[in-house]
Amino acid sequence: MDEPSVVPQPSWRVVVAIVSVGAGILMAGFIGLAIVEAGGWEIEVSSAPGAEIGRTAAQMAADAPLDDNRIPTGVVVALSIPLWLCLIAGPIWARAEGLEWRRDLNWGFRTIDAPVGLALGVLTQLVIIPLVYIPVFALFGNQDVEGAARNLIAAVDTPFDVAALVLLTAIGAPIAEEILYRGLLHQSLVDMHLDMGRFGLVLATTASSLLFAASHFQAVQLPGLFAFAVVAASVMHRTGRLGTAIWTHVGFNLTAVVTLLVRV
Question: How many angstroms separate the Cα of 167 from the Cα of each of 69, 161, 172, 262?
């Protein structure tokens, strides 16, 4: 008879998750800088109407090509692939060491996950996030919360860019990030603190959500990303399936994209 597999310790799984995030960020960063430098693009290009008008006027005055040098959407997606691969590599490695995705990562899908997750993602984006920023704006004044997403939308010029945008927001990011952050990291932290009951669950949710938000390196968006991560972790805990969290992520991202596209 085959010996039963030995489940990796939760602390080891947490280390694997953190290493996966760090390796992904470093790899994407090094590759990204090389590609951006080779293409002559600018990493930060304001998409605010005033800045766009000013840039265009300056280019016309200098008789320069009307090019904002913004990184094309297709390139942004390509630069995300190394990060996604690293995020997925951690859970795959842990699986080779005895981790079972269905049991230890809550891997699973049901038909109901799609409508419930999408609705919750839309609700989070349109209702919960604005509520989160009320105290933030009260303390620090109005902030450009949509800047990063608006920059991405502003680089969409062709059908290929639209397809790349959908791949980034509705497929790649939701699947890779939910498997790593909610599946491996969050659930491992929950297993580490089972003896602490509900407080352990709160602690695990807070820690995994903070790492998720911080790993995006967007200070203004950090409160909103943290709030979304709490929602995703909570819905996964409630249903016992990672599929609900993935669909919630899809709904959350697509709502932001569609909202900004309508405004353009």
Answer: 22, 10, 6, 19
